[in-house]
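hey so u asked for the seq, here:
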Amino acid sequence: MDELSLRNERFQVSRHLILGCSPLAGIYRTIPEHEAYQTIRTALDLGFLDLDTAPHYGLGLSETRLGRAVAMYGSHSSIRIWSKVGRVIKSVAEVAVQDRPRIEHSNIQGNVGCIFPNTPVGVVPVLDYSSLGVSCSHEDSLRRLGTAAVHGLRVHDVEDETSFIHAMASGGAIDELVRTITSSNRQLCCETHKCRFFISSLRISGPYA
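ran it, structure tokens below
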């Protein structure tokens, strides 16, 4: 197995262990920018190659900081970034009437339940498992990360039956991921809480429970 050693620790882990990057957005406590960047620098120095983030984490802040850190310290092309879809981050001015029932108020700065104290003010998360929502979320993630592509996408937070049904429905999240990947002629790992798909121009394998 391809392994990496964690400094002086006595155990080894798979080189493709995925580093979760939600703390870059200051989960449960404020994280200064330099600490977020140093976290990624240390992870890359240790040999981590897979980095996972999401629009949910600080309403785009984790993706933005990860993208900057990789640009500063990621000197090789083997780094694999994973992100997620299911939320579209909008400025308050961009929120349309039809968006309002789907605003995730608990994830907004200043609201009880927001676990990311560094979350920017003036932006809101809109839950959206539609084809258009996934497309917008994906494009926004690429812009924040400063990259042309990510290695994998997960459909985020579809544990409840309603969200899962919307994601799996015709014209929903999975349909959009299939369309995106087949049109780009490359493979992408796509996951929901309940199912996993490896999507390419030729096949869809899965799911598993």
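Confidence is low (pLDDT under 50) at residues 198-209. Helices lie at 33-46, 61-73, 131-145, 161-168, 173-184.
lmk if thats what u needed
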